[in-house]
Write a structure and sequence with these properties.
Number of helices: 27
Strand content: 5-15%
CATH superfamily of the largest domain: P-loop containing nucleotide triphosphate hydrolases
Family: Belongs to the UTP25 family.
Main location: nucleus
CATH class of the largest domain: Alpha Beta
Shape: elongated
Low-confidence stretches: 1-24, 27-112, 134-143
Biased composition (Basic and acidic residues): 1-10, 105-123, 139-148, 295-306
Number of strands: 18
Strand order of the largest sheet: 1-2-11-3-10-9-4-8-6-7-5
Largest sheet: 11 strands, mixed
CATH architecture of the largest domain: 3-Layer(aba) Sandwich
CATH topology of the largest domain: Rossmann fold
GO molecular function: rRNA binding; U3 snoRNA binding
Organism: Cardinalis cardinalis
């Protein structure tokens, strides 16, 4: 049974790493002998209730709900024991996230069998091809200053591996011009001081051809006039990020923003990934030629240039649109000019399955800009595709064991890895991943974080089958099962979160160390609240992270809820980030026979319309409202007079968004609005993002409730 990843980070913190026996002979012993978005209710804010009702009647037919069990549960008034609800929740959260996914090419439905390109196998084989002279840079790849060679050729000793496995990391801090506060950590001693390059000359980055010439053209769209005098090819942010990437250190950047810097970050990590793959493949092809030309009878061990399996880069992204953009960047970086187009196999099929039709989107959507940026294009979240790159050609839909790069969603990779006990499962292709890129990690908190944890447990394990590998070409680091100590992990997120931090701290073992950006918010999202509203922050005490879940529930039903039971406190919306807390509260409200309605990410559209109408009219006193529903829909809920944040939002800007919904209430002039927020000392990061770092420090020191009043002028 999967852990509840929504509850807190303590489960992920306590995970034990899967330790494999190392050594070449042990490896041989383990080998087997046989080789659309649904048409949403686009409500105008002034639309009539009749329109809402008619839309509600139509709503059920176009809905793409993933949790059938939950849909049935929503229809039924009799809710069984809480434990049964939790089980159902876990089953559903192991499926694809609800609502808003295009399933036209979805393997889940069993209609279309997954396509892999077998036609071009020999053409893209690393074993049977040789380096073309004009695509050379072979000599450059052998230079000692080349970061790729330095990183992959480093020979670790047993005592260093033991040190990284047992000793805690030491850390130091530095202030960089664009990234801000940068924290370096490593288990190995003698870490050199690392400073950002003020200027970057593309020719000094040891980029593989043709990237030196194509990168400035491809990245031109992000450069402003201010950037050009000092550097003609990188933005200030890209320059500092690529400085870390190119040093092969792990990186955690928690300030990715889909509206502002998302695309320039994507271009930077695509450049790094492609550079790594081109260099690695060039090394193999060059050594192929040397082996071919060597004199008979000469035996050399100098050509260890491969992993146990071919895939080198794994890119985890949330939606098909992200994969589409990545592939387009790869193509742009490989095409030197309009005359030298690269050959891309299966390109038409790829565009059909990963592209989107602009006309499919309803025209009257009123959603925030950040929503439009995140949910642009094809937002199916179940996909995986192998990409092979060989000199001037790219092969899409390559079989995983013939791929250099795998682009997948957490759900897409999870369904291949499978679970223990399943007959059809495979994770050998993850054994030799050298660069792992996890982009938009915050979105996986809204999908299913368990998939990410499952992936991290299966990366860089010894393969169960040889998959036809030539062991004389395999690097000793792979044979010794030390791959995870050489793997670079690049983690990008829109926010700091304990669960994301846990993955970076406990699943990244790079011998080069880790680099994390740790800036603190000076002002919180509360400054964007435009309605006059008193905010009461009520602190609950908890002895540990594990006890805070039950402590919050008990605090709510004992101290907070009794104040709102009176009919005068009607129109109360309770915002609940965790689905499991939502289920618990819903069961309690039904048991106590409270007058309430509820909306979650699995609620059918007709039921959503009814709930909103009942709440607006005051026929239902309480509305339980999940964060995931708000993330995927962003509807404006009318009729709110009292707000309760059962827990601080995952996204800080959701706080101001929800508070500003009060201005949609018609009787706002004479209404006495309230806003109550529950928090504990374990919510420091979320609290700082809402109220700012200075207020957070004061609130965590004081054990009293804190009253803040926002005038609407901020």
């Amino acid at each position: 049974q999967s852990d509840d990843s929504d509850k807190s980070s303590q489960e992920s913190d306590s995970e034990t790493e899967v330790e494999q026996v190392s050594g070449y002979h042990k490896l041989l012993a383990t080998l087997k002998t046989s080789p659309e978005p649904e048409s949403e209710e686009e409500e105008d804010e002034s639309e009539s209730e009749e329109a809402e009702e008619s839309e509600a009647e139509m709503g059920s037919e176009g809905s793409q709900e993933t949790g059938e069990a939950e849909v049935d549960k929503e229809k039924t008034n009799d809710v069984p024991e809480e434990e049964e609800d939790i089980d159902t929740a876990e089953q559903m959260l192991s499926q694809e996230q609800a609502d808003g996914t295009d399933t036209s090419c979805d393997p889940r439905h069993g209609v279309i069998e997954e396509f892999t390109d077998v036609k071009h196998e020999s053409e893209f084989s690393l074993e049977t091809n040789f380096m073309e002279e004009e695509s050379g840079d072979c000599n450059a790849d052998r230079r000692d200053s080349n970061p790729f060679k330095q990183h992959m050729d480093k020979e670790l000793e047993e005592k260093e591996i033991e040190k990284m496995s047992t000793l805690p990391k030491t850390s130091s801090q530095s202030q960089w011009p664009r990234l801000g506060q940068v924290v370096f950590s490593s288990s190995l001693e003698k870490q050199k001081t690392f400073k950002a390059d003020k200027e970057v000359d593309v020719k000094q980055l040891h980029l593989h051809k043709p990237l030196e010439s194509t990168w400035p053209k491809v990245n031109k769209q992000f450069l402003s006039a201010a950037d050009k005098p000092s550097d003609s090819s990188f933005t200030p942010l890209q320059r500092e990020l690529f400085c870390v990437m190119n040093s092969y250190r792990d990186l955690f950047y928690p300030e990715r923003n889909a509206l502002t810097n998302g695309e320039e970050i994507r271009h930077a990590y695509c450049l790094h990934a492609l550079n790594h793959v081109l260099k690695a493949n060039a090394q193999v092809l060059s050594n192929n030629a040397r082996r071919r030309d060597r004199k008979p009878g000469t035996d050399t061990d100098d050509h260890r240039d491969q992993g146990l399996t071919r895939p080198k880069v794994l890119m985890i992204v949330p939606f098909r649109e992200c994969a589409l953009r990545i592939v387009h960047i790869f193509i742009s970086l490989l095409e030197v000019n309009d005359k030298k187009k690269i050959d891309v196999s299966n390109k038409k099929r790829f565009k059909g399955e990963y592209g989107s039709d602009p006309e499919e989107k309803p025209p009257n959507l009123k959603r925030p800009e950040d929503y439009e940026a995140v949910f642009a294009g094809n937002i199916d979240d179940h996909f995986r595709i192998g990409v092979a790159i060989l000199q001037k050609s790219m092969r899409l839909y390559a079989p995983f064991y013939s791929s250099d790069i795998i682009i997948a969603s957490p759900l897409g990779i999870r369904t291949v890895i499978g679970a223990e006990g399943e007959k059809k499962r495979d994770f050998d292709f993850l054994s030799s991943i050298e660069i792992l890129i996890i982009d938009q990690a915050d979105i996986y908190l809204m999908q299913n974080w368990e998939h990410v944890l499952h992936l991290m447990k299966h990366v860089n394990l010894l393969p169960l089958d040889s998959h036809g590998v030539d062991f004389s070409r395999v690097r000793m680091l792979n044979l010794n099962n030390w791959s995870k100590y050489y793997r670079q992990t690049l983690l990008f997120s829109a926010l700091q979160d304990p669960q994301i931090n846990s993955v970076f701290n406990k699943h990244c073992f790079n011998y080069m160390g880790q680099v994390a950006i740790r800036n603190v918010p000076l002002t919180g999202s509360i400054s964007h609240v435009v309605v006059q509203l008193p905010h009461v922050f009520r602190r609950l005490e908890a002895d540990s992270v594990t006890s805070v879940i039950d402590g919050r529930f008990q605090f709510f039903i004992d101290k907070v809820l009794p104040e709102y039971r009176d009919a005068i406190m009607s129109h109360t919306l309770i915002y609940v980030p965790s689905y499991f807390d939502y289920v618990r509260l819903r069961n309690y409200f039904k048991k106590e026979d409270l007058n309430f309605t509820h909306i979650c990410e699995y609620t059918k559209k007709a039921a959503v319309c009814r709930a909103r109408r009942f709440f607006l009219k005051g026929e239902k006193q309480f509305l339980l409202f999940t964060e995931r529903f708000h993330f995927y829909k962003r509807y404006t809920i009318k009729g709110i007079r009292n707000l309760i944040f059962y827990e601080l939002p995952t996204y800080s800007h959701f706080y101001s968004e929800i508070c500003n919904m009060l201005k949609a209430t018609d009787s706002g002039v004479d209404a006495t609005w309230t806003c109550t927020v529950l928090y504990s000392k374990y919510d420091a990061q979320k609290l700082a993002a809402v109220v700012g770092i200075d207020r957070t420090a004061q609130m965590l020191q004081s054990k009293k409730n804190v009253h803040l009043f926002v005038t609407g002028e901020n």
